UniProtKB/TrEMBL annotation:
Family matches, as SUPFAM superfamilies: MTH938-like
Protein species of origin: Diaphorobacter nitroreducens
InterPro entries associated with the record: MTH938-like_sf, NDUFAF3/AAMDC
Name this polypeptide is given: Mth938-like domain-containing protein
UniProt signal peptide: none
UniProt-listed Pfam families: DUF498 (PF04430)
Coiled-coil annotated spans: none
Amino acid sequence: MKFQPERPDTQSITAYGPDWIGVDADRVTESVIIGARGQRIAWNCRRFEDLTAAHFAQLAELDAEVVIFGSGLRNRFPPPAWLQPLMARRIGLETMDTQAACRTYNVLAGEGRNVVAALLLETE
């Protein structure tokens, strides 16, 4: 599926597949954190089962308004205790499968929101 960004001055997801995403002109094949303010950080996890509380603490350090968590090929929720660093900073977290997270990130970034997407890219 191809996307057209509403705001050309923000980093956007231009396409995606089961185990990759297009970020502007780049093809990304590893889990990644991207932000509307230009952040692009490798996210060291290959499967949902690899995630730890430290992964979500890392997201809290990015000082976003909201974090969109793409949990891979299907929607899965992290343990609530892992979200404490985000809640302490009053950062919202929305969880959905990675493809839905890509679409949601683009909408929020296109609106000028300070949004970060943490996208788990896994294969079946």
